[in-house]
């Protein structure tokens, strides 16, 4: 059995069970309302019988029942309406006389509250009073006050539904419910079930198509989509699946792109690691094989080359670890308030010696009273150092590298400028990607291409971006902004 068919029958059985429960509830409610309707009709029809009794005779004389006179009338009334049970009550509701079949009365008094309400409403309301023959039961009644010398000396209280009537009515009502109720119940149940099944069939007509699409997607057909998703009764399910499939397909494409980048990274890292290692290995082998024939000056020269290659190798490995941590979101900024002017002065002092060795000029432009910024001091210093390394690497001898700070609205801007060969406009969007290097004169310099990628990642976790402006043979400017702290 297919999944859609199984679901169809599950829903159908649930619907059947629900209809049965509703049918039983319908019978119970019908039974209650029909019984009340019968009682209310009985009370409205015979509600004034007590008044007639009081008018035809004087049931009480000085508060004492006139047994001989009243019993004849009571019996006559019971002949006309055999369901009636007649009681005489004193003003406190105590039963002082009665005419009932079997002469079995369990109560000595009845509650006067519904009696007073019935008299007040002149019998127009539906009311239930105590049944003297059945303790705890309530039945419809008729009542009329008995006056002597304009004072109430008692009540004529008539139960309109005697035990005999109740037995007969219950028997007939049960037969009615059994015959007509059962017939109507099954007719209603069958009709509702048929309509419900057709409705379910109509509602779930596209379910099998949706299930088939799910299976195709599960088996690897990532282009599988539910056609007509904006139509039919399962629109939300279809649109949700299509959105989910689009997201998964996009994630798969991104994973494949990441995998391609990973392979490129491994290839580039392998190349960059191989170069310093090959240099180190070559000079070390030369020193080992010809150490007796190499002058001391050449030995020092070879050892210096090996040392520089090891430094480049160490720098490359450090950058790889740093970039990997940034990309995996393992580095979280520990922000604090500090002055960028102090940080810029420290970086300026550190690069003075290197600038002299490369015969470069370093300038710094820091205005007075710059506001403090709130960021990770160590990471921001790393950004400025990477930008400085990049600028000094590509600036020729006699050139200039500068650090410029400036207040911009509610932020502080940091600019690193150089007088190098510049970067072509079409390549500026790619220089911050790992292992992307400009194709002009900057390519001649060796490097892993991770410095600017690290700068971009660090600034991203600070919710800001690195910008570049450059033209060929006119140098380059890199800048970023950090939000200034407001003084409260």
Give a description of the structure:
The chain contains 12 helices and 14 strands. Helix 1 runs antiparallel to helix 5, helix 7 (235-289) packs antiparallel against helix 8 and helix 11 (377-394) runs antiparallel to helix 12. It has helices at 3-46, 49-56, 67-80, 113-120, 163-203, 207-218, 235-289, 296-327, 340-350, 352-357, 377-394, 451-460, and strands spanning 60-61, 64-65, 85-89, 95-99, 128-130, 138-148, 151-159, 336-338, 361-365, 373-375, 400-408, 411-418, 467-470, 476-483. By secondary structure, it is α+β, with helices and mostly antiparallel strands. Strand 6 (138-148) and strand 7 (151-159) form a beta hairpin. Residues 438-448 have low confidence and may be disordered. 21% of the residues are buried. It folds into 4 domains: 3-39 and 170-203, no CATH class; 48-159, Beta-Lactamase; 218-330, Helix Hairpins; 336-483, Heat Shock Protein 90 (2-Layer Sandwich). Helix content is 53%, strand content 16%.
Structure summary:
The protein has 488 residues and is of the alpha+beta class.
- The secondary-structure class comes to alpha+beta
CATH architecture of the largest domain: 2-Layer Sandwich
H and E string: HHEEHEEHEEEHHHHEHHEEHEEHEE
Radius of gyration over alpha carbons?
51 Å
The biggest sheet, with number of strands, parallel, antiparallel or mixed sense and barrel status, is: 5 strands, antiparallel
Number of strands: 14
Distance between the termini: 72 Å
* Mean pLDDT figure: 79
Output the CATH homologous superfamily of the largest domain. Histidine kinase-like ATPase, C-terminal domain
